[in-house]
Design goal:
Largest sheet: none
Distance between the termini: 29 Å
Number of strands: 0
Strand content: under 5%
Shape: globular
């Protein structure tokens, strides 16, 4: 939670997304690094830029 705050993320949004991905199997064991706050934020920013 503190790492999310340090990266200026809403901890609830971040945690909810991460837990949904893990529970659904959407993120495999070898992809867990993608769920770290700084990688999660970067992926969100890339997605937002691609949508714009």
């Amino acid at each position: 939670m503190n790492t999310a705050k340090l990266h200026e993320l809403d901890p609830q949004v971040c945690l909810t997304d991460v837990l949904e991905r893990v529970a659904s199997g959407g993120t495999k064991n070898h992809q867990l690094h993608e769920l770290l706050a700084w990688n999660w934020k970067a992926a969100r920013q890339r997605a937002a830029q691609a949508a714009a």
